[in-house]
């Protein structure tokens, strides 16, 4: 019986192919088991200087130290944060490209169902980095010194007060609409393109008040007649010790911005767990706690599963508020 001579798929070729397959599997195993072995890129969905960027630049260098590789923070602002999120959704799910986003991550998905990504299917929650209460910051044109005084004036003069935010559908806009609904007042919403523009008009008396994150409002408190009169958080703000919670006047009120890290959906669970553990360790460091406290922020302590459950609850909560307030872009 004749046998065919060894061809391109003969014994030698099969051995080489097997060796190549083994090397490929070995490289994949090393990539996951030795993660990370090169710099990690963290995309921030907003511009430099905002609350998300500020906290990211506190946390990410320390995360890099714990991982043994540099963390490169890349600002990808635009379209309310959707450009940065879309870029990460399309990236390789290998742990080397991550998203650092805020409350807008959920709000955008509710207000813009035509987005080219699905936050439930295209992302894997890694860790909540921070929670930041929203605050009511009054300008010099308003006589009220307390929230009860402000609400009394608003009830007596519906539609006369204007309140700014950083845009339609922002967490601060939603906070104002929640205040209108729960306190039975009608304060007008005036969207601005960014916080500095809003703050300039507040300082000049062209706008009565603004709903802002504690991080952006703390440096302004007491300047040029501007003052924070109440916050929307669950716990006192150490940097604003004399400022009460809005819930003390409007029971059940809660308005906070949060910030978290996400990975593409197919990122291996082992990498997500590693990132979560290291982030939680960074957030527990005394120096980080001190810096967050000065900015009115509180670090996260959740596991990936707990953060995922939080995101699901936010989708339901914010969706209900958007429908009730009839907010649309």
UniProtKB/TrEMBL annotation:
Alphabetized InterPro entries for the sequence: BUG, Bug_dom1, TAT_signal
Ranges in coiled-coil conformation: none
Source species, domain of life: Bacteria
A Pfam family per the record: TctC
Recorded family membership: Belongs to the UPF0065 (bug) family.
Identification of the protein by name: Tripartite tricarboxylate transporter substrate-binding protein
Native organism: Roseomonas acroporae
Taxonomic lineage: Bacteria, Pseudomonadati, Pseudomonadota, Alphaproteobacteria, Acetobacterales
């Amino acid at each position: 019986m004749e046998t065919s001579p060894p061809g391109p798929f003969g014994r030698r070729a099969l051995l080489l192919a097997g060796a190549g397959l083994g090397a490929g599997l070995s490289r994949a195993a090393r990539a996951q088991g030795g993660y990370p072995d090169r710099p990690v890129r963290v995309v921030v969905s907003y511009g430099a200087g905002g609350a998300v960027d500020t906290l990211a630049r506190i946390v990410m260098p320390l995360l890099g130290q714990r991982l043994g590789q540099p963390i490169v923070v890349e600002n990808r602002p635009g379209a309310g944060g959707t450009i940065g999120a879309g870029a990460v959704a399309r990236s390789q799910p290998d742990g080397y490209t991550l998203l650092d986003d805020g409350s807008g991550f959920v709000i955008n998905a509710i207000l813009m169902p035509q987005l080219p990504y699905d936050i439930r299917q295209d992302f894997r929650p890694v860790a909540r980095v921070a929670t930041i209460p929203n605050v009511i910051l009054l300008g010099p044109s308003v006589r009220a010194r307390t929230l009860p005084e402000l609400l009394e004036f608003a009830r007596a003069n519906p539609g006369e007060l204007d309140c700014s935010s950083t845009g339609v559908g922002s967490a601060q806009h939603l906070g104002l609409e929640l205040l209108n609904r729960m306190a039975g007042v009608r304060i007008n919403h005036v969207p601005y393109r960014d916080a500095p523009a809003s703050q300039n008009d507040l300082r000049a008396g062209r706008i009565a008040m603004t709903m802002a994150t504690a991080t952006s409002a703390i440096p302004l408190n007491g300047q040029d007649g501007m003052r924070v009169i109440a916050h929307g958080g669950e716990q006192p703000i150490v940097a604003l010790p004399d400022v009460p919670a809005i819930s003390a006047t409007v029971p059940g009120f809660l308005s906070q911005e949060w910030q978290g890290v996400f990975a593409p959906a197919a990122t291996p669970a082992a990498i997500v767990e590693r990132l979560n553990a290291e982030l939680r360790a960074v957030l527990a460091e005394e120096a980080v706690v001190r810096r967050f406290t000065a900015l009115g922020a509180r670090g996260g302590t959740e596991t990936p599963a707990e953060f995922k459950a939080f995101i699901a609850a936010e989708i339901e909560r914010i969706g209900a508020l958007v429908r009730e307030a009839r907010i649309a872009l």
